Amino acid sequence: MSMPSRFGPVVQRAILTSELQRLRQAKGVTQEQVAAALDWSTSKLIRIEGGTVGVSTTDLHALLRHYGIQDGDPEVGKLTEIAREARQRGWWAPYRHELAADFLRYLGYETGASVIRSFQPLLVPGLLQTEEYANAVTIELVSSPAERDVVVEVRMQRQEEVFSRADPPQLMMVMDEAVLRRRVGGQVDSGVMPRQLRHILDVLERPNVSVEVIPFSKGAHFGMKGEFTILEFTDPRVNDVLFLELTGVWDVTVVDRDPRITEYRAAYENLRQLAMPPEETGPFIEEIIASMT
């Protein structure tokens, strides 16, 4: 059995579709012309280039030959391997019937991201949550106990997948002070939030993690619109991805070719300007822990 790609199948598919589009454009032909030459429907090629379906080895080689790349060319081997990796099942596949399609796609991109920039106005970022904090939040947001179990299980698995990578991504988290002050879980166990804050301090010991806090004194800001995450990738053939969680656990939007990415990237940097210096985050969290105990 072959080893899974360190980028994951979603990112590998994005790389493959980018290459196939580049090769067709370099040949100077349209999708309609390629489809006609290969006796395919145009919609088939559109789906392949759009990444909504995988591409078989046979179809890939047919495309490459049409673009003038013969079977002995090293490029064929490279793209065949990328296509194989793009067809693999991601760790999230067992949850495909429980999770929204856009969120599944986001998990695929997150698995291969090199930089994760996130803003949170109300909740600790999912990648930093303790299991008991995640349970305390989810019980208020998800009515079905079975669905709650899935939400928490996936959240914990996400952390395992991201932090256990040989080359973990740079995590750059900005959050409102409200995230740290709200005593989530306090009605049942007053220690849930202090332990969550202590966990954040522990994670901050990792060289690839930073947390910045916007104090209440800064007033209103763009982040009050809601949480968002921007994913960046080592491979320039993969577009940045913007993830918006708008009104609920499964109400998500993923856009990888959208002008909003530029808007939110600028907003993220503006939010960082409002935050206290990173070196003050640890002492500030310590003060909040002390106030809760």
Q: Any overview of this molecule?
A:
This is Helix-turn-helix domain-containing protein. GO terms for molecular function: DNA binding. It comes from Actinomadura montaniterrae. The chain has 293 residues and is α/β, with parallel strands linked by helices. The chain folds into two domains: 9-86, lambda repressor-like DNA-binding domains (434 Repressor (Amino-terminal Domain)), CATH 1.10.260; 93-292, 2-Layer Sandwich (Endonuclease, Chain A), CATH 3.30.870. It contains twelve helices and six strands. The chain has helices spanning 9-27, 31-37, 42-50, 57-66, 74-86, 101-112, 131-141, 145-163, 177-181, 192-203, 260-274, 281-292; strands spanning 115-120, 170-176, 209-214, 228-232, 241-245, 252-255. A six-stranded mixed β-sheet has the order 3-2-1-4-5-6, sandwiched between helices. Strand 4 and strand 5 form a beta hairpin. Helix 1 (9-27) crosses helix 5 (74-86) and helix 2 (31-37) packs across helix 3 (42-50). The longest helix is centred in the first third of the chain and has 19 residues, at 9-27. The chain is elongated, with a radius of gyration of 22 Å. The relative contact order is 0.12.
